[in-house]
Structures are given as structure tokens and as C-alpha cells.
Input
Amino acid sequence: MSKINILWADDEIDLLKPHLLYLQEKGYDVKAVTNGNDAVEEFGKDNYDIVFLDENMPGISGLETLGKIKKMNQGVPVVMITKSEEETIMDDAIGSKISDYLIKPVNPGQILLSIKKNIDKNRLISEKTTSKYQQDFRNIGMALGGNLNYLEWNDVYKKLIYWELELERSGGDSSMKEVFLMQKAEANNIFAKFVEKTYLDWLHPKTADVPVMSHTIMKNRILPLVEKDAGTTYMILIDNLRLDQWKVLQPIIEESFKTESEDSYYSILPTCTQYARNAIFAGLMPAEIERLHPTLWLNDEEEGGKNMHEEELLAAQLKRLGKSIKFSYNKVTNHETGKRLAESIHSLAGNKLNVIVYNFVDMLSHARTEMEVIRELASDDAAYRSLTVSWFRHSPLHDILKAIAASKSRLIITTDHGTIKVTDPSKIIGDKNTNTNLRYKQGKSLTYQAKDVFLVKNPADAYLPRQHVSSVFVFVKENKFFAYPNNYNYFVNYYKNTFQHGGISLEEMIIPLVVLSPR
Output
């Protein structure tokens, strides 16, 4: 680490020589001056990491010196030192954006603590975070080496997200971030094998010990909460919201709400809106929707919107379960629709359940490949999270949540599936009727790389519609994406490092379910 460069201005600097020697012994470079003018002149000559200013010096005062230094470098930390505890002086100093305030006499320990608070803080946090992750790295590695069940996978994924965000916040060194990404990739590799081995058993359970999934979440989690609450419950489904995106939105949302519970559930396959979200509102798997509600289901190769009947599917589910619940359903697909809903949210107060589907994150994910601006802004997972936060702060959804909080209603936030940044192409060949999704394919006579996919030879086993007698489903694993041999290089370059969904990964399958109450 390069030495910290300190500028210290005090007209009694000779009395502070023990302090200066102490700091030099600690490895800091210190330049001492005796007045404000010299401080300003010296600050302009060199790059200083922190400035200590005596408030009462001959010539220009410490506050005047502070103003001149801040004009040259607004971001430099400045610590004011004074004999006076007069409130107006402290207010003036704080109003001028000082970083710390010390009352004479000061001891070397106070000075050192102030430096660490203002300069070494980020480095210390980074080192501490790195050290803690190194310890947990071994624990996570040992867990991955075991025979994890679906609940344990929830815990592992939460840990991975925790460390991903902590390493990002701490600004840790790039080598440790690379270690983390390798561990996350290893986890996704093992998770894909776990899903391949257990997924069909979850759909044909011999015991009750199976995860809550898309088609059971309303019956097992949402509706019991709605019936238990004497008032109104709002269920907001933010399409394509990953666990890490929820975690960065959580502090903003918790300005208006308290988190009652924070859980996860599993998306069905394919992890895409047409299948997973219809399954949520119908309380049925896709093949069951096609059989029981043929007019409300469209297959991949059929023309038309695939999620146009969610309200009818929810009404049918409530009727099938014998639930007499007055509900509303709203879908927000653009900014104007969101603004209108935010302005009229009070009109929904008479309902027991208000469902709002908010499509922004899904639109952002698709735009990640279609708009060059978004492509630049969301170049990696950290940027994708940052873009989500930036959007949310200025979105009608933020206003909607504030209005819900003001109405003192309970809030449930969830999603239908997540998304993953794809990096590695996997070649596939299909006929002209094969669907276009990059993370799963259904069709006949598919040719693919077997090691990259989870094959469902009989769609009925996964409760998926069969378009043709010989149709199969293949789901790509980890961070791969399907690419056709025709125009292969163009296709790979266009879609590589974009965010996609439909396949098997921790990010796509283990998704948030959060219950909140108003503050």
C-alpha cells in the first residue's frame, strides 16, 4: 500500500512534534505548516490524502482555509482542530463539510483514529471482509462437497449472495473477487447436477418434503398470509427479480416497511415467464393448464401473448381451492401505466388481495441484449444491480410501495424466475419450429451437447405440454446459452455476456419471497 500523505496546519506546530513523529513511525508522511496561507499553497503543490487544520491561526482562519482547500479538492477529508467548543464554530465547520472535529488538547491516538476513520476505513473494511470470506470460503466449500438438499441449497445461495455483495461494497482486491466467482461457478455446476437428479422427483413426490415451487406458492404461502391478515394484502410480483437484486432494493424499501420474513422458493422449468408465472397464478403446472384451461394457454410455436390470462387463472385457482377472496389484478408494463396505478392505489383498499405484476426487470433483462446503451450500463452483475437500484428510485413502483405503506397494508414481494449472465455457447441444431429461447429448447430431432443440458425426454414427466409426438425439452445448465451453427460467430458475439433465463442455475431457480409490514 502507498503511504498516506498528510498536511497539518497549526500555528503551534512545534508543540505537536511528538504527534508528528508518532505518525511517521506508523508509516505516514506528514507535511507541517504554521498558517492557513501556507496550507493552501502547500495543498496546491502536492496530493494530500487528509488535512488537519487548527481553527484559530494567524492570518486566514481555519474555516477560511477549509473553504479554499475544498474549492481545490471537494473530496479530500479535512479534520478541524480547535480549543473552542463554541457551538457556532462547530456548526460553521460542519456546514463546510469537514470530515471530523477534534477539541484540543488532542493525543496521538485521537489523530490516528481520525486517519483510520477517514482514510484507512475502506482498506480496513476490505481486509476484514476478505479475511471473513476466506474463513467462510472453506465452510461453503465443505458444504458443496456434501449431499445438499433443497433447503441447504437455499442457505448456500444466500451465503454466496451475501459475500458477493460484501466483497463488492468493500472494494476488495480483484484476486479475491476472482476466487469468489470461481466458487460461485462451482456451486452452479453442482447445483445443476442436483436439479437434474431431483427435479422430476419434486413433481412426483413420495413424501411431503419437497420445495415450494411456482405452482404451489399461492396455495402454500401467499393465500394463508392473505386469509390470516384482517386487512388488505398487496402481492407485488416483480418479473425476473433475482435474490441479489432484492437485497440491494431492500434498504430502500425498508424506509417504508419492516421485513417480517425473507424466504426463497423454486421456479419450475423452464425458468421463464410463460411457464413459471402462469403456473403461479393457475396453481397448476403448464401441461395441467393446457388440459384444464385450453383457451388460456398458448404453446411456444403459437402466435400471441403467452401471459394474457393471469387474472382468469388466479380466479380459477381461488374457485378450485374454495377461497372466497375479493381480489384485483393489475399488470404494469410501462412507466405511464405505473404512474396511473400509483395515483389510484387508494381505490384498491376494499379488496382482500391486490395483485400487481410489474414487468420492468424483465424488460431490462431483454433490453440488455437489444439496446446498446443498456448493454454498456449493465456490463456485469454489479452494474445490473446498480441499474436496477437507479431505476427503482425513480420509478412509479417506488411511489406505489410508499402509497401501500401509507395505507398500512401488508406487502408481499416476489417474482417468477431469475436471470443469469451467459458466457459460454453450447451448439444445438433444431428445425424451424424450435423455440427461440437461449436457455431452453423444445422440439423434435434436436441435436445438442449432452453434457451441457438436462434432457426431459418425455415432457409429461415434467408436466410440460408436448407439441409433437417426438418433442423433447432440453435445459442448458450453469452460464451457457444455446447457439445454432448457422451464423455461429455473429450469434455468439451478440448474446455472450447478456442476461438470459429459462435454464438451470441458482440465479434463475432460487428466488425471493418476502413479507413486509408498514412502519
The mean pLDDT is 90. The first helix runs from residue 17 to 25. The chain is about 45% helix and 20% strand.
